[in-house]
Inverse folding.
């Protein structure tokens, strides 16, 4: 499952994370934009939460691969397809998932901007999950959906995934948080899409807010309401 850690090695620099809004994903928009306009002063991370619709979203790099989008569209029963403006492989959407976009102007003391953003967002999520006794760590979870170095995991099972883009002194992170246990339909679509690039998806390597907290009341709306009350501040020395 790869190395697990509480922060990436380059996660230095002051950071403040705060939710600034909630939007509903539009099923008619298939090339999802980055809300760069949310960027504030350097070091302040603005998080826009997003309800999601049932479909598979493909990372920007994979979307350029000849024939891949047509192969995803051909997955039996798939209700929709979108492309992401950030990296990654495939993620699902629907009532069991909450999306997020995080935007920041890169502070001058952030030597490694992606590590800085990963550290800020995972610090925010760790503090959010702490009241349930959940310990979130960072590290690639093999055989999970969209495995990557910035996976947020609990006991070796993936909870949140993020992709990144840097442009003009700003950084964006976009991803999804699993709210409910992976259902059979989502699992079928995730397995079929990942199989196109020879990656397996094992439900035992995936988790959700409901599973890791033991709280059956989670929905995307509940998660959004609770996350909107969560803030995180890290000093430059942290």
């Amino acid at each position: 499952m790869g190395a697990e850690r509480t922060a990436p090695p380059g996660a230095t620099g002051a950071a403040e994370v705060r939710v600034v809004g909630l939007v509903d994903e539009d099923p008619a928009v298939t090339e999802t934009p980055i809300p760069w306009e949310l960027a504030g002063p350097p070091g302040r991370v603005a998080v826009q939460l997003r309800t999601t619709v049932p479909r598979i979203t493909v990372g920007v790099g994979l979307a350029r691969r000849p024939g891949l989008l047509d192969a995803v569209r051909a997955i039996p029963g798939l209700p929709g397809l979108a492309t992401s403006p950030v990296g990654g492989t495939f993620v699902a959407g629907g009532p069991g998932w909450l999306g997020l976009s995080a935007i920041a102007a890169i502070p001058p003391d952030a030597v490694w901007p992606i590590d800085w953003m990963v550290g800020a967002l995972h610090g925010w999520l760790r503090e959010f999950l702490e009241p349930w006794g959940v310990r979130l760590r960072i590290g690639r979870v093999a055989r999970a959906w969209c495995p990557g170095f910035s996976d947020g995991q609990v006991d070796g099972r993936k909870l949140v995934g993020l992709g990144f883009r840097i442009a003009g002194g700003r950084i964006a992170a976009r991803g999804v948080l699993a709210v409910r246990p992976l259902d059979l339909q989502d699992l079928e679509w995730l397995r079929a899409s990942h199989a196109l690039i020879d990656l397996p998806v094992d439900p035992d390597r995936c988790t959700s807010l409901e599973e890791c907290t033991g709280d059956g009341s989670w929905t995307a709306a509940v998660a959004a309401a609770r996350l909107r009350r969560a803030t995180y501040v890290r000093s430059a020395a942290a």
About this structure: The two ends are 27 Å apart (CA to CA).
